[in-house]
Design brief:
Elements: H1 2-19, E1 29-33, H2 52-67, E2 70-72, H3 75-84, H4 95-105, E3 109-127, E4 137-155, E5 161-180, E6 183-186, H5 196-215, E7 224-225, E8 228-234, E9 239-241, E10 254-265, E11 272-288, E12 293-300, E13 312-315, E14 319-320, E15 336-338
Parallel strand pairs: 1-2, 1-3, 5-15
Antiparallel strand pairs: 3-4, 4-5, 5-6, 7-14, 8-9, 8-13, 9-12, 10-11, 10-13, 11-12
């Protein structure tokens, strides 16, 4: 019986340790990946229904998530913001406009960039032309797929470019096929993800994600962050903000409330480019949930404006980023393969 109690006690201790979140897990940077610009690609050889920028965005989100260095906004949320504020993807190339979108999304950093190469070159060798005596021949395709990306990380508070990364991927492949009098038939992957272009794109994206995840936590930027959020509820006795434990908020943290007086819009496009604010109060966090925190007023600055929903909140003291274990570089794949029917 005594042994049974000891076993149960050990089991409880192990479960408790496993249940404790990793140190600094709540302090990971919150980022959003904006659509990459593909305007530099002059020859668009791919099908019209293939959205290159969307594919890159999805791949980048996946690669960044796999580094376990970031909390990432879904692409659908970004698309909603662009529609709501009448912004085009081309406008996001401007760091100030991009930073504005980032503040609306509640992220510290934005990742954006360009596709500088997206090419596929195939050399075809025909072994034996089909004729009356030889109804079938063989086709050998030598394909080289290349993808190159330039990315940068922008601070949504200052619109400054914190760091940059350049990634490239290349896949060389040999595919076999048959030739008949009715035409050619080549064997190979039909799905983009399994194709040479898909694999080359993944190599380039993984390289960019690794560089960004390494640089941003390796002294290329300051090892702290300021939390930005909004008032979600303003009652007579309590205030709720849209930041919580997921963003690193803890009990006792203080925030400055900035009342939004007006929004500044571009006179030509109507897009919101800035806002006019005034400090209204200092609040303190009393309790925390995953996505929100309940606060009370610590100091009222005497502003003529009352705290209202959608007012901005900024953490008074920056959060210190916990040390993270070294990040393993992305695995390299064999760049040459041979497919046979």
């Amino acid at each position: 019986m005594k042994r049974c109690y000891i076993f149960i006690l050990i089991l409880i201790i192990i479960c408790t340790i496993l249940a404790i979140p990793a140190s600094g897990a709540g302090y990971l940077y919150r980022v959003a990946v904006l659509p990459f610009d593909d305007g530099s690609i002059k020859t668009r050889w791919w099908k019209e229904d293939f959205e290159l920028t969307s594919s890159i965005t999805d791949e980048m989100i996946t690669a960044l998530a796999e580094t376990k260095r970031f909390r990432i906004i879904e692409r659908s949320q970004i698309d909603d913001i662009l529609r709501e504020h009448n912004l085009s993807r081309a406008g996001l190339l401007d760091p100030k406009t991009a930073a504005k979108v980032g503040r609306i999304l509640g992220v510290q950093y934005l990742i954006l960039g360009r596709v500088t190469e997206f090419s596929s070159k195939t050399d075809t060798d025909l072994l034996g032309n089909p004729n009356a005596d030889n109804p079938m021949g063989m086709v050998i395709n030598n394909t080289i797929a290349r993808v190159a990306l330039d990315a940068r990380m922008v601070d949504t508070t200052t619109a400054e470019i914190l760091t940059t990364a350049t990634g490239s991927g290349e896949r060389k492949n040999i595919t076999l096929g048959t030739a008949t009098k009715y035409g050619l038939m080549v064997f190979g992957a039909k799905d983009f993800e399994k194709s040479d272009m898909g694999k080359a794109l993944r190599q380039a994206v993984n390289s960019v994600a690794y560089q960004l995840a390494t640089k941003v936590y390796d002294g290329h930027t300051i090892p702290s962050l300021t939390l930005h959020g909004k008032i979600a509820y303003a009652g007579p006795s309590q205030i709720i903000i849209n930041l919580g434990a997921n963003e690193g908020v803890t009990q006792g943290m203080t925030f400055i409330v900035r009342h939004v007086i007006d929004e500044v819009k571009d006179p030509d496009t109507g897009a919101i480019v800035d806002d006019v604010t005034e400090p209204a109060a200092e609040i303190i966090v009393n309790s925390v949930k995953g996505k929100s925190a309940t606060c009370s007023i610590l100091t009222n600055y005497g502003s003529k404006y009352r705290i209202a929903v959608k007012d901005q909140v900024v953490s008074k003291e920056p959060l210190q980023i916990a040390a993270l274990p070294p990040l393993e570089p992305p695995a390299t794949e064999t760049v040459k393969q041979k497919n046979s029917a």
